[in-house]
TrEMBL record:
PROSITE patterns named in the record: RIESKE (PS51296)
Family matches, as CDD domains: RHO_alpha_C_GbcA-like, Rieske_RO_Alpha_N
Cofactor(s) of this protein: Fe cation
Organism per entry: Caballeronia udeis
InterPro entries reported in the protein's UniProt record: Rieske_2Fe-2S, Rieske_2Fe-2S_sf, Ring_hydroxy_dOase_asu_C_dom, Rng_hydr_dOase-A
Transmembrane regions listed in the UniProt entry: none
PANTHER family per the UniProt record, alphabetical: CHOLINE MONOOXYGENASE, CHLOROPLASTIC
The entry's keywords: 2Fe-2S, Iron, Iron-sulfur, Metal-binding, Oxidoreductase
Family: Belongs to the bacterial ring-hydroxylating dioxygenase alpha subunit family.
Stretches assigned to the Rieske domain: 47-151
Protein name, UniProt field: Rieske 2Fe-2S family protein
SUPFAM superfamilies: Bet v1-like (SSF55961), ISP domain (SSF50022)
Length: 418
């Protein structure tokens, strides 16, 4: 009789050789997936939307995360509130995933009716002694950073969201991102595990061969390179890169802009993130094919176009903010082999399509990049499930952040007893 050598989730994680990829079972097993959702999407802070998702009082955005669902609501005082998408009667969903506009939140099952502040306002057939005051909608812990809506579904939300907030608010402030609107949004279901989606986003080893639109605006040295055995031409290019970076940073800092890189990615951190102001190639203005702004109406009261790319990573999102538009993506795991990627393109709230910007010019870089990444994640996932797969070594020059992510992932599982 054969004996199956079944390793637990924790044992699989610990079996990873340092400097190498994760075992394939960490990407493909259903029990691993369910634990990942519980730990990384229920107990950590995650990005679930932007303030422009609910621009007016009465606007609602319902977002599903695993078995959970939340409501993002703009109340009558224009404040953003978040609630569990669960009626306090018998648990019916108040709203299907997506956006809508309401006067009040009415349960479709028995018509229990809630104000936008979450209070239960109306019921029938509950008797004169029924106390509505203890049946308000359940609030969700929320932080708004710039335009980013972060939530934590745990009763014990990690306190170090304060560090992310304190770091990013002054970086986003010049752009006045709360006064923006969504010019375009898109969803892609990538056929791969959520960790592979994040790994793909954390390295640009693959970019030169697969992302011609994206690399038009990138300085490739920003994403790692092997410094060994450089030709004279490559050394001149590297020297030019350092000179351009130094000149751009000096110019930005003279205008009072924050440029230093902040990395909180090590295993001891709970709320991991990274931010950097990246120099844009070519004309240096925006992530477009010609590297010029796509939108003449700049964010806030900005006058200067060449402000680089304020880049932010978290464990479920990535953000690029330029002077004229922002691209914000976040992921929701759906299954071991399926991950939803939502992307939103933001512009100044007064920008007019056709007058201030052309939508194709604004979106074509990341529309193409997202489709290319979806294909890469799919082939990567299928390969990790092949019996022949054995985790290979990371590049020490271009895949540094994959090793850091792998270490952080293992540490967070361990902290939750996995």
């Amino acid at each position: 009789m054969s004996v199956v050598n079944f390793m637990t989730h924790g044992e699989l994680t610990l079996s990873r050789k340092p400097g190498h990829g994760m075992p394939g079972e960490l990407f493909g097993r259903q029990d691993v997936f369910e634990t990942d959702v519980d730990v990384f999407f229920q107990k950590h802070w995650i990005l679930v939307g932007v303030t422009a998702d609910v621009p007016e009082p009465g606007d609602v955005s319902a977002v599903d995360i695993g078995k959970a669902s939340i409501l993002i609501v703009r109340d009558d005082d224009a404040n953003i509130r978040t609630y569990r998408n669960v009626c306090r009667h018998r648990g019916a969903r108040l709203k299907d995933a997506g956006k809508s506009t309401v006067g009040m939140l009415v349960c479709p099952y028995h018509q229990w009716t809630y104000d936008l502040d979450g209070s239960l306002k109306h019921t029938t057939h509950m008797g004169v002694d029924f106390d509505r005051s203890c049946r308000s909608l359940i609030p969700v812990k929320t932080r708004i950073v710039g335009t980013h809506i972060f939530v934590c579904l745990s009763d014990e939300a990690p306190a170090d969201i304060d560090v992310l907030e304190e770091t990013m608010l002054p970086r986003f402030k010049p752009y006045d991102l709360t006064h923006t609107r969504i010019a375009h949004e898109a969803e892609i279901i990538e056929n791969g595990n959520w960790k592979l989606v994040i790994e793909n986003n954390r390295e640009c080893y693959h970019c030169g061969a697969t992302h011609p639109e994206l690399t038009a605006s990138f300085l490739p040295e920003d994403f790692g390179f092997c410094p060994q055995g450089l030709s004279e031409e490559s050394q001149r290019a590297l020297d030019a890169y350092h000179a351009r970076n130094a000149a751009s940073i000096a110019s930005w800092e003279q205008d009072g802009l924050l440029c230093d890189t902040v990395e909180r990615l090590d295993p001891g951190v709970v709320t991991g993130f990274r931010t950097q102001r990246l120099v844009i190639a070519g004309n240096g203005e925006s992530q477009t094919m010609d590297t010029k702004v796509a939108n003449k109406k700049l964010f806030g009261d900005l006058q200067r176009r060449d402000l680089g790319d304020v880049h932010m990573w978290t464990h479920n999102s990535w953000t690029h903010v330029m002077s004229d538009h922002a691209v914000i993506s976040y992921i929701v795991p759906l299954a071991p082999d399926k991950t939803l990627v939502r992307t939103k393109w933001l512009v100044h709230e007064d920008a007019v399509e056709g007058a201030d910007y052309d939508l194709k010019t604004l979106t074509e870089v990341w529309v193409a990049t997202n489709m290319q990444d979806a294909s890469l994640v799919s082939i990567n996932y299928r390969g990790t499930q092949d019996p022949a797969y054995a985790p290979g070594p990371f590049s020490p020059f271009t895949e540094i952040y994959l090793e850091l992510f792998s270490q952080w992932y293992a540490a967070r599982l361990s902290a939750h007893g996995v």
